[in-house]
Amino acid sequence: MKTDNTHSAVPFYRPDVRDPELEEVIAALRSGWLTTGPRVQRFEREFGTAVAAPHAVALNSCTAALHLAVHTLGLRGGEGVLVPAMTFAATAEVVRYEGGVPILIDSEPGTLNMDLDRAEWTMTHLRSGSALAGLPPDVPVVGMIPVHVGGMMMDVDGINAFASRHQLWVVEDAAHAFPAAWRKSPDASWQHCGQQTATISCFSFYANKTITTGEGGMAVTSDAGLAARLRLLSLHGLSQDAWGRYSGNGSWDYRILAPGYKYNMTDIAAAIGIHQLARAEEMRRTREAIAQEYLRRLADVEELELPPTDVNRIHAWHLFPIRLRLERLTVDRNDFIKELGRAGVSCSVHWRPLHLHPYYEQAFGWRAADLPVASAEWTRLVSLPLFSGMENHEIDAVVKAVCDVCRRASRRRAVTLSAETA
Ligand SMILES: Cc1ncc(COP(=O)(O)O)c(C=O)c1O
Fold first, then answer.
1. Distance of alpha carbon 202 from the chain centroid
2. Residue 124 neighbours by CB distance under 10 Å
3. Catalytic residue, candidates 2, 184, 209, 262
């Protein structure tokens, strides 16, 4: 948190890219090796160490990681996968890539993560042959893709107990959750997100994520066979990549072992990632300090609900979602965001839930009433700017703008004013 006195607009996000990243990118360009090569290998090794996972495969997005994960675990057309309603497009679309059926699960009201009780209810209904809105009858459920929304991890033991009870594989959408950790209780040891928290865990290095490579992702697993398959499929199913063929004693020759994809990460991207990774914990601590500042300074604003914290979580603080108490405000969420915009503060919303998007609405016929928590909560969600390069005057500007809008649009104030003018 640097301090200076410039008062400019506060962006929703600004990447924290410094000299080491710039110098490494130049070194990569000068090296003459631009595609997957030694920098990707180093990034994979160091990322695997950071999350205590034996195998890490660098890819060109988290979406690619999620797709390869469900593909590698054998998802087939017509099979169902439990996916939270409250997530980004990628979590469900990778199920559609394979012709599978995303089975949307409502949110747990506190964290907005997938509600495992609701997932249990869904499994019970499906297994008893009951028809559920938006789902073909008798859909066989084979897996689940939980998301750690905003970087606050779910109860990993809860997920895995649920999955083993129902014989499901677990692919973790950890797009927001690096670095993050959880423990069962204060006397238990910490487990990193990716440290055997799922069969395959998928991270995002998209431009606004907690560490970035511009675009990029990583799939981690403790299963050597799965890792080898992910790697193979990430580059057209070729028996060896270009670095293997053209560096050292490699041969030009290769064999196509499977129909794969073009999902490999470049050395240019990895050059950025290596140095972002080295500062990941420092950047997380800075975001945590900013989040604590928001929590302290907005605590008494009665028009707001603030995001939960938990002593048994190391929160990645990718997002800082506030929820508006709409019954105490004279404006709706969209107008609230417009007001913040007029004050120079850019915000976002995570997310319009999947069932309220035209494709999913039309393809599956889900109704808002089927997923009541996600349907209600999204109308009052606002993600405030939170990034490690935020300066103190930017934090002040966000707090001031939020407080000003709440004051101006408070119903209590409206009632007082109308009483005064009566
Ligand atoms: C929850 C979630 N999953 C997956 C993704 C996809 O990540 P990527 O852009 O790296 O493919 C995102 C991106 O914002 C996300 O928020």
1. 9
2. 11
3. 209
